Each structure stands twice: as structure tokens, then as C-alpha cells.
Amino acid sequence: MSDLQKTQNDVVATSEITNFAEIAILSQNLEKMETTLTLTAEYVELEKPSESFRGVFIGKQVMNITDKSTGEEKQLVAARFLNNKKVYINAGAVLLSELERASVPVGTPLEVTYVRKEGNTKIYEITLLS
Fold it and tell me: CA 85, CA 80: separation in Å to the nearest integer?
């Protein structure tokens, strides 16, 4: 099994409704409910060395992209972060490998800083926040 397949299996979760009575009650109160956070992710791109962003690591997701030069459809894994009730993602290979290497658990507050570029690869520094 490839790393992408393993990640897809980790990321994609299905759930079934097992308690229709609770769901029915929830559905009757939708107009009274407050919004909590936006689940639609926004890509965060760091352009210049020393730029950074902060967020709570909330896992990974698979992104479908089209290669600009070949038009080929590809799948990339992206790290997900929550900041101020919004979800942000970044698919930097070094960022993902650093998160995995350090076994960063979901729920960890982090600062991600773009350090430098080596060839076409962006090098990131990941710092724990407390």
C-alpha cells in the first residue's frame, strides 16, 4: 500500500446515522443554531522567507489538483490547520514530512515558518506553541 493510499485511508472516514431521533431534533433547531467555524479550507501559501502562520494542527486531507504544465489530474496530501475558526491547508512536502517525523498529534498549536528554498522545495520550520 502506498503512502498516499495509507493517508487516504486515515483521512477519509465515513459515518452512518444510527440515531435518527437525535438527528431529527437537531434538524428542527437549525434556525436557532450559531455558526461555529468554516469547514471549507483555504490554501495558505508562504511566499517569502521568514513569513509564517499559526494554527492548531487538525490532521491531513487529500486534495485533487490539475498539474498546470501537463493538465494531469493528481492527488496531494495537505496538512490542515485551524486558526480563528477557519481551516487552512498547505501541501508542502517538507512541511508534511516534518509533521510526520515529529509525530505531531492532532490538536497541537504550531507556528509554521518558511525558512528558505532549495531548488523547487520550500523548507519550513515548525515550532510548538504553548
Answer: 13
